[in-house]
């Protein structure tokens, strides 16, 4: 570990990763009940990326997420109970129950929204980065995307525009190995997303996305670059997802025992715990206390979401369009 973080920072990072994991693992069970409508794409396995990236961000920094966005929301500080209620389609949700899993947003937290369109976050982040540059307050905009998103033309255009305008934009690519059901080794001709992105003229880094500390260090370097006015940059984090592309995906395209092996060798929470315990940065008592607290909060979130009312039919046309003065 090259970075120095306080005990409170490390406890906070573990809490967020554990929160993401348990939020997703519980959703995996709850979806089976039939109470949750619509597609859901779980983030389990990629926790170190969201938390390692967002650990550096200030309240005014902005992020744009993906269809697999619950982890990004939690890492940026979105209310977990409000998120659960939103996924359940309840009026107490962050989007009043109208958006669901793929459209969670909280502008007050700098979370500009999850997105059901692959690659759509790049152009949005470039717009946010342009606004940040004009404001001159030193803020940055971060776009999260998977390995599939970087084959989208809109992302290429966004990267090029960010370079041309020298914007404080950071493109975070979570390479979990699969674009829906297609392997990245097949779909990415160069086999090197970071290297290909660098061809636009951006600073680029590739790091282990299963290691919180590797992500944290890489993001710190890129943020220093972007905040200094040196233009956009790219981080490719190699990671994995424990569940299918969507809930119900049988994952027949994955090798036998691949997920089992990844859960044993690439579990970001296990890696984090081993690191901080071996280096005596944290103790098991403190980590176990967080585990218990998180499980209790998730249980409360589910119970409250189930009990909350759905949106009223009279609100069907509200919050659809923005009226500008």
Task: Please characterize this protein's 3D structure.
By secondary structure, the protein is of the alpha/beta class. The protein has one domain: 3-Layer(aba) Sandwich (Rossmann fold), CATH 3.40.50. The chain is built from twelve helices and seven strands. The strands form two sheets. The chain has a five-stranded parallel beta sheet with strand order 1-2-3-7-6, sandwiched between helices. It has a two-stranded antiparallel sheet with strand order 4-5. α1 (7-30) runs antiparallel to α11 (268-278), α1 packs across α12 and α2 (47-54) packs parallel to α9. The longest helix is centred in the N-terminal third of the chain and has 24 residues, at 7-30. It is globular, with a radius of gyration of 19 Å. It starts with 6 loop residues before the first helix and ends in an 18-residue tail after the last helix.
């Amino acid at each position: 570990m090259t970075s120095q973080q306080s005990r409170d920072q490390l406890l906070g990072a573990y809490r967020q990763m554990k929160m993401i994991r348990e939020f997703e693992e519980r959703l995996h069970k709850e979806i089976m009940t039939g109470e949750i409508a619509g597609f859901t794409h779980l983030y389990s396995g990629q926790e170190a990326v969201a938390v390692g990236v967002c650990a550096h961000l200030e309240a005014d920094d902005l992020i744009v997420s993906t269809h697999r966005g619950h982890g990004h929301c939690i890492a940026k500080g979105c209310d977990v109970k409000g998120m659960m209620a939103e996924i359940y389609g309840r009026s107490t949700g962050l989007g009043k129950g109208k958006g669901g899993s793929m459209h969670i947003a909280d502008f007050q937290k700098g979370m500009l929204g999850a997105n059901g369109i692959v690659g759509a976050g790049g152009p949005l982040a470039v717009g946010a980065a342009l606004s940040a540059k004009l404001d001159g307050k030193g803020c940055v905009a971060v776009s999260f995307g998977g390995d599939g998103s970087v084959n989208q033309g809109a992302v290429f255009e966004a990267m090029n525009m960010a370079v041309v305008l020298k914007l404080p934009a950071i493109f975070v690519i979570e390479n979990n190995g699969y674009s829906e059901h297609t392997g990245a080794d097949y779909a990415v001709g160069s086999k090197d997303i970071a290297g290909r992105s660098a061809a636009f003229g951006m600073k680029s880094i590739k790091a282990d996305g299963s290691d919180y500390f590797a992500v944290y260090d890489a993001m710190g370097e890129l943020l220093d670059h972007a905040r200094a006015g040196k233009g956009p940059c790219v981080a490719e984090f190699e990671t994995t997802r424990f569940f299918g592309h969507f809930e119900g995906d049988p994952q027949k395209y994955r090798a036998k025992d691949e997920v089992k092996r990844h859960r044993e060798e690439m579990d970001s929470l296990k890696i984090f715990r081993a690191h901080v315990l071996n280096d005596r940065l944290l103790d098991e008592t403190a980590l176990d206390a967080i585990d218990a607290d998180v499980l209790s909060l998730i249980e409360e979130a589910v119970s409250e979401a189930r009990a909350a009312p759905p949106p009223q039919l009279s609100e069907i046309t509200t919050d659809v369009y923005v009226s500008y003065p």
